[in-house]
User: Fold these one by one.
Assistant:
Number 1:
Amino acid sequence: MSDMKIMVGVKRVIDYNVRVQVKSDGSGVVTDGVKMSINPFDEIALEEALRLKEAGKAAEVIAVSVGPSQAQEQLRTALAMGADRGILVTTAEQPQPLAVAKIFAALYAKEQPGLVILGKQAIDDDAGQVPQMLAGLLDVAQATNASKVELEGESARVTREIDTGIEVIEIRLPAVLSVDLRLNEPRYVKLPDIMKAKKKPIETIDAQALGVERLTFLRVIKTSTPPARQGGHKVGSVEELVQELKQRGFV
Amino acid sequence: MKEEQQPDGQEQALVEAVARFAIGQLAPHAAAWDESETFPLPQLRQAGALGLCGLFVSEDHGGLGIGRSLGVRLFEALAEGCTSFAAFLSIHNMATAMVARFGGAVVRQQHLPELTSGAKLASYCLTEPEAGSDAAALRTCAARRDDGYVLDGAKAFISGAGDTQWLVVMARTAPVGSKGISAFLVPADHPGVSYGRRERKLGWRSQATRMVLFQEVFVPEDHRLGAEGQGFAMALQALDGGRLNIAACSVGTARAALREAISYVKTRRQFGQSISQFQAVQFRLADMATELHAARALLDQAARHYDAGHRATRAFCAMAKRFCTDVAFAVADGALELHGGYGVLGDYPAERHLRDLRLHRLLEGTNDIMRLITARQLLDDHDMEGLL
Ligand SMILES: Cc1cc2nc3c(=O)[nH]c(=O)nc-3n(C[C@H](O)[C@H](O)[C@H](O)COP(=O)(O)OP(=O)(O)OC[C@H]3O[C@@H](n4cnc5c(N)ncnc54)[C@H](O)[C@@H]3O)c2cc1C
């Protein structure tokens, strides 16, 4: 399967170092003038795709971003890391997971990749739904929360970190993978590659052209800041601690 | 600190890539490298692989081919991770750019790729025991012999010496004057090259500083850089860029110091409240940020003049070096002050920043020599307009 294509999702999100601020009208969070980056889980997905390509197990890595035109920046970073080309699917408003899954399904039909590798969640909305929805829509195998991926011919052996421990499953390709934090450590981007990325192609498609009209299915009622942490106090001894916990009904 | 003027997307991406490397691979080790005087070779190789060892060398010669305006942003980002590391990379880039610019075809073909990739590192050898500020008084001699030169003499304060593979050496091919100086590329392990002990010093402790001695060191003619007699002019030109880099390393370090001070004053409590509530503390922070931005603006201007070939470039580089290193030192001092007694402890980075930044005020030309360069231009009837 060395002529296999891999499609990777690259979502533009608020950088993980930024302290997120809720808009005063509660309609969302402030993104103006805020540093944006590739969703860290997507970076891991891309890294895995690149390693598979470098190991001769794939021929092409296609980075896909769904979102505003500024997501070009994140696609450029993906190209600098090593993706061969980018596809930007523009949408009129922030699409929700099902719409994103439908967009990926439409691109899948066009590109026929052997693997779609996605982050297990995006750090902005933490929905964690696209990979599973996509596998459902395509009716292909899925392996979620991957912490190790080994390709063998027409199948993949995937190690997953689950609540009860480590699970190893084997799935047939084509398949959808969602990746966990410990899968790999993304590479540092080389400066000359940033310059060369300028010349790699990014195709822009509107979601409507892919037949995806409806972008939202849920209405967000309100966004608010979690309550501020109440200051605690120091206890003098273990006995005092136990007593306090009892008093508050925790033990 | 946020950019006032967003550089174009690609420049921003380059700065972010370097910042990421500095925060991920340098910052966690900077204190330990300083403490144990460790030269971080693996990270230097990594920096080379990322493209940081041939910044000012054209792409045709395997470099990145960027200008100084972007260069200073990259050095700022590096210094936020580790000042001494960034400063050494500046020196390597300075020497490497000289090889690229003035080396003959053979030298460039054979040695430049190793330098730009960081597989080999270079030192810059100008200063001598008797020739510091008055560098043109250097006495290391390069006597003509057959198809090359024989070097004899001693260099002092050579950064990286003993750990680098190449030396760019300024030496005399004629007995007097700055026009009697030529530049050479010398293998660091050549017969006749020997090294003094590793100097014990206040800052830049992760990199060696040593004397380098030359005793009948033969250098083939094709390892001369540029024409005979051009060495001093080339060395000073390289220093213009070096001074911008040192200024940038100072700004980056000071920004790290300010960042740490801000987070410290928010957690430290005295008199029943966070010390960040005291107006004296707030005003100090405000002044630190203000002065740092002013320094950065001057640095930007000097770098732009360098890139544009402005006729007062040398004086602008001198002004930027003087001002940025002084301001950065004052900012680091303020940051240390805000840490109280904890500021002088090795447990916090404040004292390391102060030690490293103290060096910046005197190397690559002392700040009084920067004033001298600036004043000389101001008092020159033909040249003063460029500075006013
Ligand atoms: C850690 C470190 C690393 C270094 N790395 C390198 C390197 O890699 N390569 C290299 O070539 N050099 C290097 N140097 C040398 C550095 O550039 C010199 O130390 C510097 O130029 C000052 O020279 P000096 O030490 O001889 O001081 P001096 O020239 O003796 O100066 C002593 C004092 O006199 C003042 N002074 C001198 N002349 C004048 C004047 N005309 N007017 C007013 N004041 C004057 C100076 O400002 C200074 O305050 C390094 C130095 C250090 C400390």
Note: The longest strand of chain A covers residues 141-152.
Number 2:
Amino acid sequence: MTKNPTEFSLTLDGKTVNFTPGETLYEVAQRHQKDIPTLCYDPRLESFGGCRLCVVRLEGAKNPVASCTTRAEAGMVVHTSTPDIETHRKTLLEMVLSENRELEVSPLRGYASQELTELSERYQARTGRFEGKQSGESRIDDTNPFILRDYDLCISCYRCVRVCAEEEGDYAISVMNRGFETQITTEFGGLLKDSDCTFCGQCVQTCPTGALADKKAMRYSETPGEIIKTRSICTYCGVGCSVDIMTKGEQIVGLQPAMDGPANEGALCIKGQFAYDFVQHEDRLTTPLVRGDDGELHEATWEEALDKAADGFKRVMRIHGRHAVYGVASGRTPIEGDYMMQRFIRAGFGTNYIDNCSRA
Amino acid sequence: MSMTDAQILERYAREPAPLLPVLHAFHDRDGYLSEEALRVVADGLRIPIADLFGTVTFYHHFSRKPGGLHGKRVCTGPVCCRKGARELARSLGAETMPCSGRCDDPIPVLEGHTTLIGNTVSDLVHKPSPLPAPNPGGYQECVFAGIREEGRAGLAGYRKGGGYRALEKALAENDPEGLIRTVTESKLAGRGGAGFPTGRKWQAVRDAPGEPKTIICNADEGEPGCFKDRAIMDYDPHALIEGMALAAFATGATRGFIYLRYEYPETNDILAAAIGEAEAAGYLGDHFKLYLRRGAGAYICGEEGSLINSLEGKHPFPRNRPPFPVTHGFEDKPTVVNNVETLVSVPPILRHGAAWYRDLGLGEHAGTKIISLSGDVARPGNYEAPFGLPLHTLLHDWAGGPAVEGGTIQAVTMAGLSGGFLAGDDLNVTLDEPCIRARGSFLGAGGIMVFDSSRDMMAIAAEAMHFFAEESCGKCFPCRIGTQRLTERLTGAAGPRDKTAWLDEVADLGSTMKAVSACGLGIAAPLITESLVRYFPERIEQHCAS
Ligand SMILES: Cc1cc2nc3c(=O)[nH]c(=O)nc-3n(C[C@H](O)[C@H](O)[C@H](O)COP(=O)(O)O)c2cc1C
Ligand code: SF4
Ligand code: SF4
Ligand code: SF4
Ligand code: FES
């Protein structure tokens, strides 16, 4: 059934536009390339309405309304950028800057870490205005190897808490106290490792100030070179999360989830997020090794190594039969490698004893 | 014998809104909330432990230190501070608490579940809250009409004065739509601050799809300088129950809550007894089950969305609106949230008719408003004033004028603290919203604090803003940061010394807070600075110079 288009249309900055019932004003405006500023917004999460930067003028309403929490209604007349609104946005940013200790933070801290910096540049928000007490206390005592909890930079947008609950389902962190004394915490104020945290890194990647930061990536803050992002797929399990591998020159410096990854939409687990060191690890084998008659491993050519392996398999088959062979493919093999592996075991040895270490 | 963990959970887990009573039961039993207790509660009610921990820290009165429950807490509201509350707290070695709703008495001190009253350590005594004096203007009353009758708090006493007659009549006539029409025609509007027409609210809940529907009485009364709901509940609890039962009948609601502020422990007992009597008499029961819930010290929990979140056991941030509680309230079902005074006005309206109630107001104004009057007046207390009464009449004729012989009234607050100050010529207002709103303030819940010319308005403004900063929930940026920055500028702890820059920052903070804050707290708080700047510019000059 087609609806009369005027039934679902509103006026956006003077133009009549259509909307789908249920859409928020922010979403409608996004579709029409309106660049409404936000800090507490993450499209994956329920709208929260905290930062108030997204306010728009709605004709007939006494005060500006938060576009992220206001659903579109037929006949609304909306202005996304009036001089008044822009003044409030700038004042809000200057208020935020007054509690935040650092504006320049390394992009290695996390995916969204530049949001506040970029907005304050866009609005030319002045630092030093509204000076006063600082909010948030960093947890330098939390020495876990993955996540820096630098709450001196926290602006209480609660994206971390909400992503942990809504996307990750872990409910490891929450909001303690109230008002200006608000602090992000775990149960009883403890360390992340003693909480329900799985170190998925979701909170790090949604934090708009870098208050939560990727400690592993930050090891390379001082490494010279531009950060290049290369889209890839996580090599661990069968989900196939999209990732952006960050490099400086030849060095992998970190990894960020792809927000537009079809399988993960920005999510990763601890392995995908943090366990990439093996790629450039010094213990990694670079040539085949073959055990000699002396019992020691010796560098060898692929020819020698493969011959040695084939001999071994054949001997086992001869003595114990074909079902004595059991193939386990690595979780890190690509799908083509997995296919080859099972052909090798099934057709090559004639057994169905084939498995994969990550059957997720 | 005290209850075991399992018994506590067993007692409440099947009731709606179990978290607050369960936490109170542990708090009362152990004298504080231990980590073990919170883990048991989290398990029993299936709340993530980090969430529960965070939420418990939100409330002022839940103590996490052994013995904390029994520590003394001294009211340091604006009126009590002028009586020496800070000195009293120091001599007692006690904690402080925001205005605890007893401004018509000497300083209240909460000790466990007992309210002590006194000015010094040696004269602290437990005594009942003051009964409203007979109407000094001789006006006919609605809410207080029967409150001074002997034995009124008991069922028999209440019935003797015509109590429950309106409910019985409503049930016999069985015309809920007609009942709502009468309430609408009476022009009764919310007495909790926002002034929404009560009949329209009830009709909206009646019309909204979804069941069960809920009636919530907002008895959180956290606004400094407001103590009217306490007087009503202490002396006329059955009137509230009858009002709620009528609301339930009108809307089809089958369950109700009274959300009572923590600082009224005696009121809690009075309400519990009255609910028991009303249940035994059949006014309450399976058709309308009424639950009493105590808050735990958070002004913002008087905001209806925050209140509902608090009942549901969630972090008590206000909710985004729309949707409103009338369609998506408690457990996302249609819900009436009404103030105590609003609900208590309904039985007399139904007994005497809509026209009777409307005519109680002066001029074109309909009905009455309880004013909690405190501070530097001779006779502080609760007064039921007809809308439209001149403020001057209330202050001077009814309350006896300045407390000190020869004193002059310098300023008053409106809506407790939320309406900021009125001073100078604006003390000529009449007590009704159109007149007071025209002065950039509002009457709201009707708390008026009076300050004579010996008082330093800068200090009072700083205390007021400090209150808002401490009570800001922290959900939205303009209020969380703005209340803090305005406090610092008023105390002088931070901010520009140059007057022009000072005024500029204060005005910018205020205007953004007023325009874009997520709830009424952040919107109202800058009225303090706005009115200070308007009425006391020379005091600001001094402040910046010092
Ligand atoms: C910060 C804040 C505190 C409030 N505190 C109270 C309160 O203590 N009691 C109350 O009845 N209403 C309070 N309100 C108003 C409620 O949100 C709501 O409007 C009211 O309870 C509705 O009842 P009414 O229509 O009968 O007034 C408060 C509002 C705000 C914004
Ligand atoms: S790393 Fe993941 S589980 Fe841990 S707090 Fe952050 S979002 Fe929650
Ligand atoms: S840590 Fe980051 S994401 Fe979490 S509340 Fe603070 S600023 Fe927001
Ligand atoms: S205005 Fe203040 S109290 Fe209200 S939601 Fe915002 S921070 Fe919370
Ligand atoms: S994006 Fe709407 S309030 Fe933050």
Note: The pocket of flavin mononucleotide (ligand 1) is lined by residues B 190-194, 196, 218, 220-223, 300, 302-304, 337-339, 342, 519-521 (CB under 6 Å).
